[in-house]
Amino acid sequence: MPLESLADFFQPGIAPDSLSGVNRLQQAWPYLSVFVTLFRGGDEEVLMRLLVLRELGGRADAPRWTPQEIAQRFAYLNDTKLATILGRLREGELLVYDSDGGQYQLSEGARVALAALATLIDFAGDDVELGYLTSQVAAGQAVGQLSDDALKHLLARLNELYGEFEEALESQSEFRIRAAQHRLEAVWRWVAKSTEVIRSLTADDTLSLSALNQAQAIALAQSRMLALAGTFERRLAQLAAQRVHLGSSGLTSTDIADWLRRQAVGQLADQLTGCLSINPEPAFIATPELADMAEFELLARERAKAGNTTLPGSVAAPLSGELEVERLFAAEAMYDELLTLGLQLGESGADHIPIQQAVLADSYNETAYRLSLLSLIGDPESHGDASIVAALAKLPFTLHGGEAVIEPEHPEVATLSDARLLPHTPN
User: What phi and psi values does residue 423 have, to the nearest 5 degrees?
Assistant: First the structure.
């Protein structure tokens, strides 16, 4: 795809090839163009192209086809339509014709597209997205080609499902809660599968830091979702205790509500025939009475609301899991950076590390958090911990100086202590 045609989509002065996202798509365009050929046109055309291509690619023992074999295999299709489909597949380079042997065979791009579509089609009817994303992460890990995008999509789907389940619980609707509980049971096996995959990922020493951070975030999202199973049961038990039993009939308010939900609008209207009566508006109300009613609705009611001094009800504090994970990532990044600076210190022969090299980050918040972590270095009370706190406490540094301030070149940090980290060798 030429970059000149892409330039029209961007602001003046921005070159498409300067964007990493565009470059990555351009490199994959030979495979992406296969999907363009497959899915261009009406639904019927797309379905028939996929049918023909899957049939041609499904014969593994003899992958080459003669025109006569193709005509026999698709004898149930219209000859003109079949010729059009084969022509489109050849134009899009999904089907290659060998003029010497007089046979057709699938191209490399067509094989890749069929493999991706086969996985997607096999998941149809289940929670296709979560199962498919889990399979992509597992496959990438198995072949050593783990994609950060696949991890991000899996994390996003888990967070979406958790949000849907949480909304159902907050709705206090027994029907929504039961539907959400059934949905959780449907995706339970995929959550269990992804838990196994993430457990093996976090145990991989060769995993990059960004992939490890994504895997830890996925593990946190999975634990939050699995904790909802008991919450559903408790909330349903609370709602069951609030049901109203209709005499000795054995029916409850939940049974009546469920029956009403399954009735069509026309059936409900027929049930109400003769049960409602229309009362005409009284014509004997004089203008003063109407004015009094209007004054109450427009003014007095609002004044009563404004004078209400009742304290608001209690609200549950927001979950702090995401903030804790973010801080954990920042602490791990600082630990890795201090290890690198320590190695560079030994190679360069310098006697200290300026504090700005250790704590300055992209934002003020992260810089301040890093500065607070320096107090952990050498702390004997933190050595027994198994977390990143213990790792920071065991670093062979000591903090000295700090009487004066410096002015670093940073957009959000104006001044900083002139402290320094000195190498420390334990006795």
Answer: -65, 140
**Tell me, what's the pLDDT at 48?**
92
- Residue 178 CA to residue 232 CA, distance in Å, equals 8
In this prediction, residue 413 carries a pLDDT of: 83
Q: How far apart are CA 300 and CA 422, in angstroms?
A: 73
> Which residues contact residue 176 at a Cβ distance below 8 angstroms, ignoring those fewer than 6 apart?
168
Inter-residue contact 392 to 404 (CB < 8 Å) = no
Residue 45 structure tokens:
């055309």
25 near 9, Cβ under 8 Å? no
Q: Which CATH entry fits the domain spanning 3-122: 1.10.10.10, 3.90.940.20, 1.10.287.4070, 3.40.630.10?
A: 1.10.10.10
CA-only gyration radius of the chain, Å: 33
Q: Which of 133, 136, 138 is nearest to 161 (CA)?
A: 133
How far is Cα 7 from Cα 22, in angstroms, rounded to an integer? 11
**289, amino acid identity:** E
CB 328 within 8 A of CB 388: yes
Structural tokens at position 142 = 């198995």
What's the mean pLDDT in 204-223? 80
Would the pLDDT of 247 be above 70? no
DSSP characters over 80-132: HHHHHHHHHHHHTTSEEEETTTTEEEE-HHHHHHHHHHHHHHHTTTS-HHHHH
Whether 380 shows a pLDDT value over 80: the answer reads no
- Break the chain down into helix, strand, coil percent, rounded to 5: 65, 5, 30
Contact call for residues 378 and 424 (beta carbons, < 8 A): yes
Going from N- to C-terminal start, the domains of the chain cover: 3-122, 125-242, 327-423
Which residues are 105's β-sheet partners?
A: 96
Q: Do 224 and 321 meet the contact criterion of CB atoms below 8 Å apart? A: yes
Confidence of residue 281 (pLDDT cuts 50, 70, 90): low
**Residue 422: strand pairing partners:** 398
User: What's at 223, amino acid-wise?
Assistant: S
Residue with tokens 């990059």: 208
Residues paired with residue 252 on neighbouring β-strands, in sequence order: 245
Reduced to 3 states (helix: H, G, I; strand: E, B; else coil), residue 292 is helix
DSSP category for residue 411: S
Q: Which residues 6+ apart lie within 8 Å of 216 measured at CB?
A: 202, 325, 328, 329
The least confident of 38-47, 50-59, 269-278 is 269-278
- Report pTM: 0.44
Nearest to 31 by CA among 115, 112, 90: 112
